[in-house]
């Protein structure tokens, strides 16, 4: 028997034309995907369909805001293009040297990578330099906080000086804000910032005046019995004070330029060279002691100028100035400040060095006289010694004490020994105090 073959009738084309499309998938439908089978197995068809419906409902809202997102994208793209254009212009103007501006380099990708790295380093340094300028500018403003901290520091430092307590004096330095205006002044000279020079100068002058008035008022209304070594040590400046002040200025400037160093420690290092001399000036004024006032004023000026000199040198050498600034102008301003500071410091240092040498000579005389007495004159000790200036020259007055009067030849030998070693000593006067054991 012959098998009847039935013709497969294809569906007729519908109204919209979709029903008439026939594909292999329509004849042999594909197996459901692994995801679809998993959804069906766990009974999640409803939740998936719900999520799909929710997403479809939200589509019109997203389409509604599509114009805004496109506008934002266009703005972002425009800003990026502007930024990159500016970067390329600055690289061409400030990074690429004139002899490097040729077609061969412009077509070399490695050349552009190298110059872009240089440009990034320049921008990072510029940001750091402006950060230093901002910090010093903010700290140099004569604000109420500056006056409060200065007043508190002056009170604590004056109390520490009167009591002779080094710990209290150092404690006062933690809150002393005098460092910032001085460093700001030096940086302002390097930058040529007249406004910052004005603000820092005002802060220095007002802070100085306030500290002196406070310390003078304290000792005037609260009488003191005498002067401690902490006070006296600030009335006899010497060349070592210049060394300390210069080192303090270097630490201060480098501490601000280098973020790894604590500004608090830097402030203490500089304030130690400033606040105690200021308070000593006030103590001298409050007790009407002119010599003390002049000695402490000399020390303060030495420290102030030395710190300004060394900090300006550090800022200049570390190139803490605008990247696009004229190097010749920066160098000119720095050298001018250095020269002026050196001249003023030299004018002050010459007499200070002279008095330092004189004090050293006096101490040498005393030391050699004491050594001779201890080794050559038995049963006698030095009770008191002082060198007095007279019309004839320096005269050493010695007071010895002991249970036995020294022989005359030993006294003459003592005089001869001291006079022969020190050419600036005109005479030696010796007194003896006889002590008895009762």
Name the features.
disordered N terminus, 438 residues, elongated, 17 helices, three-stranded mixed β-sheet, Alpha-Beta Plaits, mainly alpha, Glycerol uptake facilitator protein
Q: What summary fits the major beta sheet?
A: 3 strands, mixed
Rg is 43 Å
CATH topology of the domain at 125-321: Glycerol uptake facilitator protein
Termini distance? 164 Å
**Helix content class:** 55-70%
Estimate what percentage of residues fall within beta strands: 5-15%
Number of strands: 3
- Helix/sheet category: mainly alpha
Strands of the largest sheet, in order across it? 1-2-3
Q: State the CATH architecture of the domain at 125-321.
A: Up-down Bundle
CATH class of the domain at 125-321: Mainly Alpha
Low-confidence stretches: 1-28, 38-66
Q: Residue-averaged pLDDT, rounded? A: 76
Could you explain the architecture of this structure?
The structure is a single chain. The protein is mainly α. Among the domains are: 125-321, Glycerol uptake facilitator protein (Up-down Bundle); 368-434, Alpha-Beta Plaits (2-Layer Sandwich), CATH 3.30.70.1350. Helices cover 69% and strands 7% of the residues. Strand 1 and strand 2 (394-402) form a beta hairpin. Helix 6 (109-140) crosses helix 9 (179-191) and helix 16 (327-376) packs antiparallel against helix 17. The longest helix is centred in the C-terminal third of the chain and has 50 residues, at 327-376. The chain is elongated, with a radius of gyration of 43 Å. The model is unreliable at 1-28 and 38-66 (pLDDT under 50).
Q: How is this structure best summarized?
A:
Helices cover 69% and strands 7% of the residues.
């Amino acid at each position: 028997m012959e098998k009847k073959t039935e013709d497969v009738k294809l569906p007729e084309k519908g109204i919209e034309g979709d029903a008439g499309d026939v594909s292999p998938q329509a004849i042999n439908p594909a197996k459901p995907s692994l995801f679809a089978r998993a959804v069906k197995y766990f009974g999640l068809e409803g939740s998936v369909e719900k999520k799909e419906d929710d997403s479809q409902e939200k589509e019109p809202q997203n389409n509604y805001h599509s114009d805004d997102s496109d506008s934002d994208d266009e703005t972002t793209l425009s800003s990026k293009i502007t930024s990159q254009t500016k970067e390329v212009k600055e690289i061409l103007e400030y990074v690429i040297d004139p002899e490097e501006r040729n077609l061969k380099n412009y077509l070399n990708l490695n050349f552009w990578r190298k110059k872009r790295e240089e440009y990034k380093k320049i921008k990072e340094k510029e940001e750091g330099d402006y950060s230093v300028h901002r910090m010093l500018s903010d700290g140099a403003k004569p604000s109420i906080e500056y006056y409060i901290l200065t007043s508190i520091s002056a009170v604590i430092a004056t109390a520490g000086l009167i009591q002779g307590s080094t710990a209290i004096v150092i404690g006062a330095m933690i809150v002393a804000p005098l460092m910032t205006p001085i460093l700001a002044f030096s940086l302002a000279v390097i930058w040529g910032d007249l406004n910052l020079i004005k603000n820092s100068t005002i802060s220095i002058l007002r802070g100085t005046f306030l500290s002196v008035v406070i310390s003078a008022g304290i000792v005037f209304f609260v009488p003191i019995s005498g002067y401690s070594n902490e006070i006296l040590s600030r009335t006899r400046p010497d060349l070592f004070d210049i060394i300390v002040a210069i080192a303090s200025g270097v630490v201060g400037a480098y501490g601000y330029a280098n973020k790894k160093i604590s500004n608090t420690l830097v402030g203490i290092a500089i304030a130690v060279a400033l606040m105690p001399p200021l308070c000593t000036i006030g103590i001298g004024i409050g007790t009407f002691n002119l010599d003390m006032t002049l000695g402490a004023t000399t020390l303060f000026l030495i420290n102030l100028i030395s710190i300004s000199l060394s900090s300006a040198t550090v800022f200049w050498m570390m190139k803490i100035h605008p990247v696009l600034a004229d190097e010749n102008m920066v160098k000119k301003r720095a050298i001018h400040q250095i020269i002026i500071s050196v001249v003023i410091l030299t004018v002050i240092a010459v007499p200070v060095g002279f008095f330092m040498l004189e004090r050293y000579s006096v101490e040498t005389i005393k030391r050699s006289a004491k050594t001779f007495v201890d080794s050559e004159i038995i049963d006698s000790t030095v009770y008191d010694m002082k060198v007095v200036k007279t019309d004839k020259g320096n005269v050493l007055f010695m007071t010895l004490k002991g249970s036995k009067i020294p022989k005359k030849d030993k006294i003459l030998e003592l005089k001869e020994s001291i006079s022969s070693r020190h050419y600036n000593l005109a005479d030696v006067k010796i007194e003896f105090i006889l002590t008895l054991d009762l």
